[in-house]
Amino acid sequence: MERTRKFVRETRCFKTARVFPSDVNNHNTLFGGKLMAYIDDIASIAAAKFCRANTVTASTDSVDFLHPIAPEDSVLLEAFVTWSGHSSMEIFVKVIRENLRTGDKRIAATAFLTFVAFDEQDQKMQVPLIVPETEEEVKLHQTAPDRAEQRRYRREASRELASFLTTDYPWE
């Protein structure tokens, strides 16, 4: 049976938030953890729109903080699927900060996350093929296999490291 196909545009979603004083750290910039929660949230929506099934975060390759986000800014997150495997998909999240006084916009962060889809019996399920259209989508799609290979290598290194780690509490 041939796999279904979905266009990247069908997975694209957006989230905009205001930065409040309770959202900032001692440098008066948005807490990294708060932004990471926004990133995982919006990526999960793109993943669900893509496969219309339950999904879980399998990995976060990186969150690259490129420009600080201040209380006078809003933060816009844009997420979409860039690549799909058998049951997994790569989601790209672009974070744009906009100064609400001046209108100045900058790319504040980027992130790549991998999600896995599960069927009603909690078994991994096949996901559609993703079809890029725009120049940005095509570039991200073409470079995805390299990122997937880096993920496989990093996951194996993490498993090897975990085999040497203890689960004992310090007081035991």
From TrEMBL:
GO terms for biological process: acyl-CoA metabolic process; fatty acid catabolic process. One of its GO terms (molecular function) is long-chain fatty acyl-CoA hydrolase activity. The keyword Hydrolase applies. Signal peptide: none annotated. Belongs to the acyl coenzyme A hydrolase family. One of its GO terms (cellular component) is cytosol. InterPro entries: Cytosol_ACT, HOTDOG_ACOT, HotDog_dom_sf, Thioestr_dom. It comes from the Bacteria. CDD domains: BFIT_BACH. The keyword Hydrolase applies. This is Acyl-CoA thioesterase. Keywords: Hydrolase. Residues 9-121 form the HotDog ACOT-type domain.
